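#help-structures
NK: newbie question, is this the right format to request a structure? protein is DNA polymerase IV
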Amino acid sequence: MTAATILHADLDAFYASVEQRDNPALRGRPVIVGGGVVLAASYEAKRFGVRTAMGGGRALRLCPHAIVVPPRMSAYSAASKAVFEVFRDTTPLVEGLSIDEAFLEVGGLRKIAGPPEVIAERLRKAVLERVGLPITVGVARTKFLAKVASAVAKPDGLLVVPPAGELEFLHPLPVERLWGVGKVTSAKLRDRGITTVGQVAKLSESTLTAMLGRASGRHLHALAHNQDPRPVRVGRRRRSIGAQRALGSRPRPAEDLEATLAQLIDRVAKRMRKAKRSCRTVVLRLRFADFARATRSHTLVHPTTDTEVLLATARTLLRTAMPTIYDRGCTLVGISLTNLDDKDALQLMLPFDEVPPGALDTALDDLRDRFGTTAVTRAVLLGRDPGLSVPLLPD
């Protein structure tokens, strides 16, 4: 059996922690980032039941004395870059998961840096001293268990799961600790009296597949036995680029939703071109007033970087969802561009236009880089609140 050499490092209440770091008056007090919808909550606010993606009104009813601050995405991005510098100073084998978490492989560093638990403690100290933020680290033999360990150790903790004690640690945990167990799967399992990971592990793979479907059943059977062969991958290119915008609880007319959609497409298409990628699949994500979610997608015949093609596809997806939106209301719109490929892989289509494909998009990207994102905008967005488009976490 291999040693526990994988670290999962996860910043604690990241956005809220940055706000508390930068404003001493907020330290030790309940902080909510974002007004209409909670983007992040400090642990002082979480103790009152405030959670990410909760409506702002509900959050303040749970925690009336909370301090609400507007998000500062540039500050969070700068903090993330500084933390990842600490990660890369620790080991060259870093796999970023999102703006605030990563896997690190430290198995080859024992002779020069010590055992994994010493490296993990040194990492936590370096992040606090150099960036001023608390971070929790889980150490285990597999990615899955390292991530579970960090979740159990939060906030501001360190937990090492030795190989000999893996199942002893894992099996008493609630089923929700398994990756892939959300509200629906959790309800299916709990309706059958299955509440812990250990109870899942006692079921055969065939029983789980009959209960949950082939893919989910096999996935949960493997995780319940800590079977996760994935190595830490360095330099893996992201599989999607996305952004979302919270809309608040008041009803929105169709033209507002289409304007928001155009704004999101403009931003993610620009980011995609900057990364020198093209996409084939457009994904629309919606959250309704009752907190239920829906996803719709369309795959194009050919990959594209063309903003207008992407926007037309997204508008079609939105229009098919409008009957549901009218019935249930919409509190969040998100767009993801997936099935990404290298931009050079684009196939030129006949007849060739006199203007090179994408020339207009490139010119607009350059103008917005030089003069700001609102220097050139769509007529439909004139006079509208630009709002906050939050980047979606990478896959």
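mod (FA): yep, format's fine, and the tokens are attached above. The two ends are 29 Å apart (CA to CA).
NK: thank you!
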